[in-house]
Amino acid sequence: MSAQRPNVIPFRGGDREPAPETRAAEPVHRHHPASARTTAERTPPPPDTAPEPARTRAAAPEPEQSMYAHEAAAPVDERTGPPSRTGPRAVPAEQDPTSASPAAGRAAPFDDWAGHAFDDAERDAVYRAIRERRDVRVGFRSDPVPDDVLTRVLEAAHQAPSVGHVQPWDFLVIDSPDLRARVRDLAQAERDDHTRSLPSIRARAFSGLKVEAILDSPLNIAVTVDPTRGGRHGQGRHAQPASAAYAAALAVENLWLAARAEGLGVGWVGFVDERDVADVLELPSHLDVVAYLCVGYVEEFPTEPELSLAGWAKGRPLSWAVHRDRYGHRGLPGQEPTSLLEETITAIGGLNPRAVEEARDRQNRMTKPPGSLGVLEEVSVQLAGLAGECPPPIPEPAAVAVFAGDHGVHAQGVTAWPQEVTAQMVQNFLEGGAVVNAFAEQVGAEVTVVDVGVVGDLPRAAGLLPRKVARGTADFTQGPAMTRAQALQALEGGIEVARDLVSAGNRCLITGDMGIANTTPAATLVCALTGADPARATGRGTGVDDDMHEHKVEVVRQALAANPVDRSDPIGVLAALGGLEHAALAGFVLGGAALRVPVLLDGVIAGAAALVASAISPESMSACFAGHRSSEPGHTIALEHLGLRPLVDLEMRLGEGSGALLALPLLQGSARALRNVATFDDAGVSTVH
């Protein structure tokens, strides 16, 4: 291999013309505490001074990845105060060009990858800064940030990558108490508005969170972006018009990591409208605010993200985010790629026998006659076994996911309602005007609507997850309702929704559905998976008359005849006879079970989906609780087949998640009783002789 490689820009430390030594005047910044450091302390060492040995620490071992592991690495010693020396760090002298080192006079050999790597101490320091970066909201100290420290942090931010090297960012350092107070007022108003939009349980938890430190930190920094910088011919801009904003976000990350290395905390103020902030700061109209940051030294860095410590949200394991060749084909480097469904099934397990035994023992020792709480005692035992601990956590906050889709069998006249009602009801859910919204507000649950197969286009809206697999299913009296690929996509879409809701801090998942004509495929699935006769399993759905009901039963028979299925292949059964919302709900059940979170089932649509989930993974039923019994006859058949006992039986048949929401307080009450009721020994109450 030749000593020189033409047309290669030399790396730092390689052969290059030495730049003439220059030295800018030391900037004076009002944050610099003159009394704390002398001029000599701020002066960099002369060029012949040996660099100060770096203070390093071996990186803590990373926790093993698992479906449930959200714990951060073990805490490390923090540098929480101003550094002992504030001058620019000493830089090792340039390599002697005549040295025999491979880095002298040429770039590292192509096959010598280690020649480009940092040494262990440097690499550990980089990864430590990444691992211990935190969004800090509390504990800022009043110590000012020295000028040279702030300059180094801003220089690091300015080194961020950008398409076309246009560097579209600017950094506005904000000292003015008046400006900061005005931004704080904006944040407080936005916080109050957000609090009013939250379910009651979430609102109470949110009231205890500090979400900004605008006045507490010694300085604020607004990071802006100029989308026009570089002109119309900036490299890459024609293909990636949003690249400027992405680059500015990378500058924010660089700033954050450099600040952590300097012992500075950074807090991102999320509760402000960037347009309002731009007005307060009197920014030119062509600039947008990307981030408003609070910066300063802190008393300590949290061992985990503050929202995680508060139970508001959980981190997502790396294994959820790494895909190989195609989205959904997951696998960490060195591991065999697998599908999300396979990964989820592998993670599902049964109840923890130790926790089950402890819960039963505690029920027998609580200050009440044994068995006096009836079904709720077994519910609490199941919750303990699912959580693996006694007492189990209270299943709150809770989220109901309403999966929406349309059905080709609607063309067979199985309902009097027009198909466009599906999309209209989705809009009603999003506007808060449906029964599911009223019941969710009553019990403090969050409502999320998921479009997995609505025929029409739905505008983007808060609370709507666009996960459309197809514009409805095919008419299954003429052939399969879905392809196998569509069924799998919808299944995995449901798993993803379960994961997202649990990562957002929810401790209970509730099934909901919307789809005109969806009770027809539900009844067909019940027949296919239990062997029930269509006349026994098919109900009146939205209230059809006798003639239409008789026709509906015949349509179910036609679908079964047109699609001979093998019960041992539940995904094949689902694809042939189900709906997109049935498939997504089955995945939702599997996803909750894999995360060991209770899943509260609604009516016949959820019951049919649970039959599919149970056929795929029987142990998934350990996470399931029947919220109510629908008046649809197929639901009773499904519950009996699954061995689930409904908590509520009010002759409801609405769907949406309405019946399960009414049962949520019973589920929560059973766990709270197991947790809070005293035992005979604790209370000093005598037992029967």
UniProtKB/TrEMBL annotation:
SUPFAM superfamilies: FMN-dependent nitroreductase-like (SSF55469), Nicotinate mononucleotide:5,6-dimethylbenzimidazole phosphoribosyltransferase (CobT) (SSF52733). Residues 13-28 have a biased composition (Basic and acidic residues). Its EC number is 2.4.2.21. It catalyses: 5,6-dimethylbenzimidazole + nicotinate beta-D-ribonucleotide = alpha-ribazole 5'-phosphate + nicotinate + H(+). Coiled coil: none annotated. It is an enzyme of class 2 (transferase). CDD domains: DMB-PRT_CobT. One of its GO terms (biological process) is cobalamin biosynthetic process. Catalyzes the synthesis of alpha-ribazole-5'-phosphate from nicotinate mononucleotide (NAMN) and 5,6-dimethylbenzimidazole (DMB). This is Nicotinate-nucleotide--dimethylbenzimidazole phosphoribosyltransferase. It comes from Nocardiopsis aegyptia. The lineage of its organism: Bacteria, Bacillati, Actinomycetota, Actinomycetes, Streptosporangiales.
